[in-house]
From TrEMBL:
Its main location: periplasm. It is found in: Periplasm. It comes from Plastoroseomonas arctica. PANTHER family: ABC TRANSPORTER SUBSTRATE-BINDING PROTEIN, PERIPLASMIC BINDING COMPONENT OF ABC TRANSPORTER. GO terms for molecular function: peptide transmembrane transporter activity. This is ABC transporter substrate-binding protein. GO terms for cellular component: ATP-binding cassette (ABC) transporter complex; outer membrane-bounded periplasmic space. InterPro entries: Peptide/Ni-bd, SBP_5, SBP_5_dom. Residues 45-384 form the Solute-binding protein family domain. It holds the Pfam family SBP_bac_5.
Length: 501
């Protein structure tokens, strides 16, 4: 893994979406899951522990989930709707005795409209929202389902539960050492027969330094590495290792502060910065393993169908805008940016940010970096641009999965989704954005919703609210013995089909 520690096995793991990939969807299942079985199209939602979900026709703020029958937890308990209630209490109810504050910090921002939830019998889970929210099924992909008996068996202690987690997922946890490794073993009784893992054991190793991961692969310490450095990929191919990659919803940006005193409040500076990024040059630097940043989602879908001319590389136009704002390469705008040296989806953050630093210097923006540990950077992102922990930075380089309307746009733009609710890090507060987002929430027809989302994304591009740089192709390298892996067009991946020849 690219993470610097093993993700927490609590059903709501840390270490970003990489934590969810390796410790969330392996040990646990969710009401709604992603179909990760194919590589030739975007991953779609599919039934998980809920076989169906619908909005109450008499109340659009009331969601009804039908719970799957016959599912067993790792300890043999049969799943009921009460287990879902318990799990949602752990995530979203601070006064519950079993509330998990660390886990909640990872998922509460995914479902900010939650109001209350309860069971109606063993097979029906009800979720009520504060406002009409058409995006609830996407949020339901994040909270892993466990049960109260597991928490009781761990002494009613969420820390002890980390050593004895109980989910319904295709893998069970055999051992866990947060700084060294975790060992997952096959769940032979998994409810979805086709996804019973082909391998008996998976060992997760946190290796944040890219060249260390490659060395581990070459020395047969591991069979599979995330994000090999681009300059190593040709030699790995030549040595017989398999390299896989695929496009998917992933966004590599700088999030820009809009609070008082931030230089990014000037739209001319934001537009200039976007015109000053040599995305094609960065793609060459990464050996082709990126898509040139096209916005909050890659170019080509209904929300962002064509590439915006606002994202061309035009340093002369950028310098003209900076001059209008009162800055030149000799009299530059100076500011600090928070970055990490590694982490989930950060690609090659040091090399990429140094390339940006050089490009922006040529148009009159002088950047210095504050380097954070990945998990600390994520915490700082959740705390917002006003946090004293941001160390004077006016931008932050946090990458994230952008697979649905909420994760891709809404949580970053809605005025009431600032810290501690969600991820409006820069404190954007604009009624025009809020009005479009409200339309999205209230629109259940997908084509109509897509049209509103396109309006929203066009506005973001026009006002250059972020520094748009790249979309990851998520390269992976593995030995020729690794068979059956299907790289889905998703940040998440299914380990269950993998076998070792």
């Amino acid at each position: 893994m690219t993470a610097s520690a093993v993700p927490l096995p609590n059903g709501m793991p840390d270490q970003g979406a990489e934590g969810h990939r390796f410790m969330g969807i392996t040990l646990y299942d969710h009401l709604v899951m992603w179909d990760l079985s194919k590589s030739d199209g975007p991953a779609a939602l599919r039934p998980g522990l809920a076989t169906a979900w619908r909005v109450d026709p008499n109340d659009p703020k009331r969601w009804i989930f039908t719970i799957r029958e016959g599912v067993k937890f790792h300890d043999g308990k049969l799943l009921t709707a009460e287990d879902v209630v318990f799990s949602y209490d752990r995530a979203f109810k601070p006064d519950a005795p079993h509330y998990d504050a660390r886990g909640s910090s990872q998922v509460r921002g995914r479902m900010p409209t939650n109001l209350r939830w309860y069971a109606e019998g063993e097979r029906t889970f009800i979720l009520e929202t504060r406002t009409v929210d058409s995006l609830v099924p996407y949020g339901a992909t994040w909270t892993g389902i466990t049960h109260q008996g597991a928490w009781e068996a761990a002494g009613r202690d969420n820390d002890r539960l980390l050593q004895r987690p109980v989910g319904t997922g295709p893998f069970k946890l055999e051992s866990f050492n947060i700084r060294e490794r975790a060992v997952l073993v096959r769940n032979p009784d998994y409810w979805e027969t086709a996804r019973i893992p082909k391998v008996g054991r998976v060992t997760l190793l946190p290796l944040p330094e890219p060249n260390t991961r490659v060395a581990a692969l070459r020395s047969n310490q591991v069979d599979f590495v995330e994000a090999p450095p681009p300059d190593a990929i040709p030699s790995l191919r030549q040595a017989g290792f398999n390299i896989t990659s695929n496009q998917y919803g992933h966004n590599w940006t700088w999030h820009l502060s809009l609070i008082e005193g931030s230089p990014w409040r000037d739209v001319r500076v934001r537009r200039a910065a976007n015109l000053g990024v040599d995305r094609a040059g960065m793609k060459d630097m990464l050996g082709g393993m990126m898509l040139e940043g096209g916005g909050l989602v890659p170019v080509g879908g209904p929300w962002n169908p064509v590439r915006s001319p606002r994202l061309n590389y035009d340093p002369n136009a950028a310098r003209a805008l900076m001059a209008q704002a009162g800055f030149t390469p000799r009299n530059p705008m100076r500011t600090k940016v928070a970055i990490s040296a590694s982490g989930s989806g950060q690609m090659q953050p040091l090399a990429m940010n140094e390339a940006l630093q050089q490009s922006l210097k040529e148009i009159g923006i002088d950047i210095t970096f504050e380097v954070f540990d990945w998990n600390t950077l994520l915490t700082t992102w959740r705390e917002g641009a006003r946090s004293p922990n941001i160390r004077g930075c006016t931008a932050i380089n946090v990458t994230y999965t952008a697979l649905d309307p909420y994760s891709a746009m809404i949580r970053l733009l809605k005025s009431d989704l600032v810290s501690p609710v969600a991820n409006n890090w820069g404190y954007l507060n604009d009624p025009a954005y809020d009005a479009l987002i409200q339309q999205v929430y209230e629109t259940f027809d997908i084509p109509a919703q897509d049209a509103i989302l396109k309006q929203l994304h066009d506005k973001v591009l026009d006002e250059a609210l972020f520094l748009f740089v790249a979309h990851d192709l998520n390269p992976r390298a593995m030995t020729r013995n690794v068979r059956g892996f299907v790289q889905a067009q998703s940040w998440f991946q299914d380990l269950t089909p993998i076998s070792l020849g």
